[in-house]
Recover the amino acids of this structure.
């Protein structure tokens, strides 16, 4: 895995700073733990609307659920990042161009 964004996501997972999947991400958002919400390219429109309505800091990435699975070991359309440092780095890495 040579991609900086996916590598950083993998590090965040190993550090225990991610809430993976719909229910876990919603719990993190409601508990004010989430710093960033990542939505995959193949996430449903309903999921995008729901998460965007719950949390303003949603990042739509060009990666698929399968790409996320390769990085963190779990297949999900939404991932909440529960660490400010990881959130900033992931947002900056995505803006640099995946």
């Amino acid at each position: 895995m040579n991609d900086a964004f996916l590598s950083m996501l993998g590090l965040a997972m190993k550090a225990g700073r991610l809430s993976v999947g719909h229910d876990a991400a919603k719990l993190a958002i409601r508990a004010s733990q989430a710093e960033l919400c990542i939505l995959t390219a193949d996430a449903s429109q309903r999921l995008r609307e729901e998460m965007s309505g719950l949390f303003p800091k949603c990042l739509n990435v060009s990666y698929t659920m399968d790409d996320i699975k390769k990085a963190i070991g779990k297949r999900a359309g939404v991932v909440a990042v529960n660490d400010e440092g990881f959130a900033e780095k992931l947002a900056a890495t995505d803006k640099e161009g995946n």
Summary: The helical segments are 4-14, 22-30, 45-54, 65-72, 84-95. Strands lie at 18-20, 36-39, 58-60, 78-81.
